[in-house]
Amino acid sequence: MKTSSELSPTSALDLEGLFNERRALIDGALDRLLPAEYVEPVSVHQAIRWSVFAGGKRFRPILLLTTGEAFGAHPEDLLATACAMEMIHTYSLIHDDLPSMDDDELRRGRPTCHIQYDEATAILAGDALQTLAFQTIAEESLLSPEKRVLLISELGRTAGTPGGMVAGQALDLEAESCAVTGEELERIHRLKTAALIIAAARCGAIIAEAPDPELDAVGKYAAQLGLLFQITDDLLDITATAETLGKTPGKDLQAQKATYPSLYGIEAAHQRAHLVHQEACAMLEQIERPTEHLRAIADFILRRKA
After folding, report:
1. I want to staple 73 with a disulfide (CB 3.0 to 4.6 A). Which of 16, 17, 57, 208 is the partner?
2. Average pLDDT over residues 227-249
3. pLDDT of residue 7
4. Domain, as residue range, for 135
5. How many CB atoms are located within 10 Å of the residue 130 CB?
6. What's the pLDDT score for residue 12?
7. HSE of 292 in the Cβ direction (CA atoms, 13 Å)?
8. Average pLDDT of 238-262?
9. Number of independent structural domains in the chain
10. Going by DSSP bridges, is the β-strand pair 106-107/110-111 parallel, antiparallel, or unpaired?
11. Whole-structure pTM value
């Protein structure tokens, strides 16, 4: 998809530069992979592009690229799977915002898909993005058929049920207005949020043909990273504004969702975030690779403001 000169590995610990470079490359690849707005059915393809190009950090595909490079993958081999990861993530956001789910009207600083278009179109746009993600990996000629099967299996397992994102969303909805234990809360977040983040890191390592011990270690790093992401997300729902957050703040409290601040309080949630950050970084010490950027990503998630 891209030549190695166009997708250059990072050489200095410049996280902002890394994010900006990778985001531009991912957006360019997504623009080529997604159907154009004028292709029938126009309404669905316009809705897809409205949601995908609404902004966003591109955190999951950037994590995939960064992990793959740390393990020595050719950068151009990573890009299609990184885009597939963003397709799955965006589909989940479209469906998560629906009236039958979280019923939100703002996402990434603009009207949600079902508000901008309509509910049926939003559902179809999410469905199309999900299927296109798997098609993108299946048709990536830079990867061997065996590797593509591994990646599709990894993504399918972590995006669905019983141990993936869909399962976490179901448990999250069931927990609304209910008393949950700390163990139950962590299980919800490890499925709903961390599972796809684990997949991002593991897919990068799989493409790089990392040995099993290192694949296991980077998966454990990403598991803690995903939990950290959700804890900070819970905190931002209370402390951030709509302008900085890009979505409606206070929705968790309004929906009586199970969150770390609601269960433990804000101060204890901050303490938990720092502990999980330390645990994520500790897993990187088991990997004899250049993991400085993976450590920097954990630092970024700990202190993120949006």
Report:
1. 208
2. 79
3. 43
4. 4-303
5. 20
6. 40
7. 9
8. 70
9. 1
10. antiparallel
11. 0.91
